[in-house]
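I am still learning, so can you show me any protein sequence you like together with the matching structure tokens, please?
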Amino acid sequence: MRFAVILNEGAGSVGELDEERTRIVDAFAAQGHDAEVHAAAPADLPEVVRRCWAADPHPRAVVVAGGDGTVSCAAGAAAGTDVVLGVLPLGTFNHFAKDLGMPTDLAEAAAALAAAEVGRVDVGEVNGRVFVNNSVLGLYPDLVAIRDELRDRHGWGKVRAVPVAALHVLRRFPVRRLDLHGPGYRRDRVRTPLLFVGNGVFEADGAGTPARAAMADGVLGVAVSRAVSRLGLLRSLVRGLARGSEAVDDVEEVAVRELEVRLHARRVRVALDGEVDELAVPLRYRVRPGALQVLVPPPELRS
């Protein structure tokens, strides 16, 4: 069986990429399968996905080796097509891979992909841009933008840069007024520091970061923070992580298939699976049920 594996060449130096390529080939070879590894710049990744899938002989799947941002970029090319996407979780957080049940150990992940079956999952979309986990407006994209600036300036990793960026954002604590319209849902001039739109419904159970129970439920999980002070937002965050979503009483949650977000701006900073971009207002969200084919590990090999 042959797999086409795509490495994001922005993930490290050429030497590191060569070492990673060897590790991936060896991991699949240990399962009796061939892995053809391609390195791609982020901007070229969608085209490389399409080219790998069209190759002869046809690969079983195009496997993306990287984090959530890399997976999201590949999903934008694969959604709505016959491309089957696999995920090797080599990023920092790997939320999408973990929700699929993919092990984070490379050898275990290769074994899981070799034994996986093809399933379908939803994707979210805003103004034509696909996301696999979430899209966030407000404090979080501001935090990510500052985080990336700190990383570029000081050479820090994400884990080190995030707390410093969080302090910068909390010091300013911008609150926006939003109009939110969806089927059966309407809120005008909502004051909020944070709007979260999930590809599916995410819940915190008090045991870690929020996750979704289903990846093909055909809805967007929308959460609007009603905290309008730093202390209120921090209290809400701590309570949710420690005791679960049900313990949070200052977040409005709703599940919709579509959502339009309006505010007094022509463009707004938005985070899509951890990557920040500026999008034109209004923001038009929708869910695309079952639009992405992915390799899902069998229950006995899930993490």
Observations:
- The longest strand covers residues 283-296.
- The two ends are 23 Å apart (CA to CA).
